[in-house]
Amino acid sequence: MNAKLFSAAIFTLFITVAANAQLKKVPFFQMGIKGGANLTKVDGKSFNDEFKTGYHAGAFVQLRLSNKFQVQPEVLFNQLNTRTDTSFSNVYDIKNLKDVKLNYISIPLLLTYAPSKVISFQAGPQFGILIDKSKTIADNGKQAFRSGDLSMLGGVQVSIGGIRVNGRYFVGLNNINDIDNQEKWKNQGFQLSVGFKII
What we know:
Blueprint: H1 2-24, E1 29-43, E2 52-64, E3 69-83, H2 87-92, E4 99-113, E5 119-130, E6 148-160, E7 163-172, E8 186-197
Antiparallel strand pairs: 1-2, 1-8, 2-3, 3-4, 4-5, 5-6, 6-7, 7-8
């Protein structure tokens, strides 16, 4: 009888250790750096309907909710490029706003679902603060673009060891036109990045 109880206790201990080991496969806290390319445009009648390249760089933190779900906040410097078309100066009477470079401090807040150790799916909002005022001042002194932007992100992340590769699509939810209400302007585009886990 004692042997059976001893065997049961050993078996229970083994199961407990194995379960804890499974939980430890996904650390509670991870942090890293990332950077990559943006392919973006401003969606609106006065802008060319073509994507222009830019870049982003910053840091991410991952907090485990469970083995399959994590929350991943990030802080990024985001450069979004676009170009106005020929109708822009006719509509807004602004002569020197052609190649447009919008630099944001972006804060994505992503929910990550990881069905496996390698592949995970991410979605969530991204809050942006426009920081490059010199690129958004028109000839008449008015600011062309609003200082805040709200977007929705979705994408896939591949994790191999401490390396993270992800591709995302984002679409703006609010109008960034700060001149008037004649047209709605919204950021949209793709991001491809590589990240490295530090902690």
